[in-house]
Amino acid sequence: MRAMILAAGRGERLRPLTDDIPKALVEVRGRSLLERHLDRLGDAAVEDVVINLGWHGEQIKERVGSGSEYGLNVAYSDEGQTILETGGGIHNALHLLGDDPFLVVNADIYTDMPVPNIELTQHALGHLVLVSTPEYRDAGDFDLVDGLLRNAASASLTYSGIAVYRPKFFDGCRPGRFSIVPMLRAAADDGLLQGSYYEGLWADVGTPERLAALHAE
């Protein structure tokens, strides 16, 4: 399975730390978030990884290069100054991801989750890994019922930032900047998204306070 790491974001809430580096290269306990994901993918025998680039993307290319240090073949999807968000970023990289289901990982999460081995059912367009909703959030993103994602007014679980998609999920999308969230909502309503729950270590490194908490553990 090929994988994509979403690493184009600027990390506004982590400023001024991210004024001079991309959020994906923020370090936790001496290792950048991005390199931790690459290590895990390499250990799981994933061979081909696509990284999308945006804010200070040249620093990521300088650090990671071809990916050989991690046992990977790394290709880049450079979005330049127009960061395409989650949906647009993945859609823009489809030509690098092949025809089979592929893994997507948000660069700005910290977790001990093993790379998931996910088999999509015949009708499923994707599979999202969910986690317990953090205390700083008022509500989660989805409920999980009989292995399928469900939208709910007060959802109990939060999307972890790790998913598997079929390329078909993006059929009909047009090039450009767009969020994947409305697509996930619609697919969940149609019963086309599988899900699973992970109860281990997971954190969204979105603010200086959350980053400090990880360093303190």
Alpha-beta classification: alpha/beta
Element order: H for helix, E for strand: EEEHEHEHHEEEEEEHEEH
Main sheet makeup: 7 strands, mixed
Main sheet: which strands, in order across?
A: 5-4-1-6-11-8-12
Gross morphology is globular
Write down the Rg. Answer: 16 Å
CATH class: Alpha Beta
Count of distinct strands: 13
Low-confidence runs: none
How would you name the CATH homologous superfamily?
Spore Coat Polysaccharide Biosynthesis Protein SpsA, Chain A
Mean pLDDT level: 94
Total DSSP helices: 6
Domains (count): 1
- Helical proportion? 10-25%
Q: Quote the distance from N terminus to C terminus.
A: 33 Å
* Level-2 CATH architecture: Alpha-Beta Complex
Strand content: 25-35%
In oligomeric terms, what are we looking at?
single chain
Could you please say which CATH topology applies here? Spore Coat Polysaccharide Biosynthesis Protein SpsA, Chain A
Write the layout of secondary structure elements.
Elements: E1 3-6, E2 27-28, E3 31-32, H1 33-43, E4 48-53, H2 57-64, E5 73-78, H3 85-92, H4 94-97, E6 102-106, E7 109-111, E8 126-132, E9 143-145, E10 148-150, E11 157-165, H5 181-189, E12 193-197, E13 202-204, H6 208-216
Parallel strand pairs: 1-4, 1-6, 4-5, 8-12
Antiparallel strand pairs: 2-3, 6-11, 7-13, 8-11, 9-10
